[in-house]
Amino acid sequence: MDPGTGAAAKKYKKMPMCISFGFVGSGFYGLQSQPKRPDLPTVARTLRQALFESGAIAASNMEPLSRTKWTLSSRTDKGVHAISAAASLRMETLPEQLEEHDGRLVLRAAEVARINGFLPPEVRVFGAARVRGGFDARLCASSREYEYLLPLSALGGASEAEARARVLDFDRVLSSFQGSHRFHNFGSGLRTAVSDMEVYEAGGESWPLGLASGDDHKKGSVAKAFRAVLKSRVERTLTVCGEPYVLVRISGVSFVLHQIRHMIGTALAVTHGVLPPDAVELALATSLHVCASPLAPGCGLLLNRIFWYDIGTATEETAYTPQQLTDMEAFKREAIYPHIHGLYQGEGSELARFLQMINEPTSELHYHYSPLMRPDGKTGTIAEAPEDYALLRRMTKRWLEERAAQAEARTLARLRAWEEEPSEKGMAEATAGVTAGGTAEAGAEGLATAEATGEEVSESTRQAKDGGARGDGSDGGGDDDDDDDDDERHGASVIDEAFKPSRGVHKRDQPMLDRRSRSGLPGGLHVRICVHRELVPGPELREMLDRLQAEVRQGLLETQRPHEYYLARLDELYGAVAPSEVRWEAES
Description:
34% of the residues lie in helices and 17% in strands. By secondary structure, it is α+β, with helices and mostly antiparallel strands.
């Protein structure tokens, strides 16, 4: 019955809920609906129709989306799959449809099953829980976790020993992405347009810039390019439909358009020897324009988990129940994995074409191996690649040396200003000039952290006010039917020590720990802790940060030291963490 009509209407209550669902992405034009092509099938439109038919959305509230405050947690590629997509909305509910679980109101299993009765088998709802009124499934997400399922044969290797070595090489390249970096060379639409491209000159040589300073550039903004990857590793090998596979796990705060697919494609190219071993490091180190990221197929990509932990208030906004997790894993194992396996079969598959492109190029299907884009918009040839990479290494070295010198000069200027007029604010600004590396000589990592925690945080604050990526796309967004996750307008993507107030939480109700004047911890430390101890933002991370900040306030730890200084202290307090290794199926 439509909750908006009839005698039963008084029984319904519109309640803020977060609904979790999964889907097999083939056959849909992405998760988010396309306003310019409403005829295209999308997961969001299919789900909303099922909620309407079940009575969870009243007919009067179907359009516009603002009537139910509908917001999707992410935007996934056309053909990409998920077991943990989510949407926040004001759902029509009856008391008998709800039950309490761990202090939260959740939909009963019978009601979840009833909603699934209105859905095709490719889309499954796993549950829904009540959330606070200001909850936003996208903006409140603290991290996202993806899987990429890849046939073992895609890595090459004529023998079992060689195949194992290839897996380890692949894992090593993937781990290079961990941390806070500029991902303009690994995301679509982030780099400066060719017509607007600037050139970096040093030592009598030059190289095109992929990013431009300032926030007034729609493309090429340094702030928009920074992202924090918390984990990027091969987790294990497994068998799907009788064939061996490798499972890649990538987690981060947020991702830019096509980022994960570019990461996988680059790692495959390096593993096959198409790109040099340092290709990833060179493309991440500076704002230079580097062509080194072939786009891997999207059919193996899967949104595996989303977390909603508010590190400012130390609260978990919402969480999956044990039954939801069981159902999600079953759907992945029984529906998504076999489907991905089927997509990989055959000579004409996307993966087969990708491997041919990088290993056996033809005139119609080939990859440009050179990292340098010429003024005419074309990349160099395979014969020019070695010389171009040698030039790129020289230019990268000069770039980092220049930035280190500039950082040291700024620090000295701030120290002189503080000495002339000492104050708490002046001292804070002076110490803030020292990057996460502790000194200007700390190199690329410290410089990247300084830029990330400065420019990107200001950008994320502005982006958080932008509703352009909301809903299912019918509120004015473009035809972004091929996003990995959120588009370039997504909010905070680096966890900074300055805990920003959460959506719907008043500033005075939330502890604000200013990293410059109060916490004494260097920028980007959150990310380094997550990478070092293999965590996602949650209670364990918050406890560690509180412990470090307490010791800084007590004078037991020094302020603004290199990250390794604080990581070593955490190892003393909580025990050292052994680096994870690939789990081989026969040994599991």
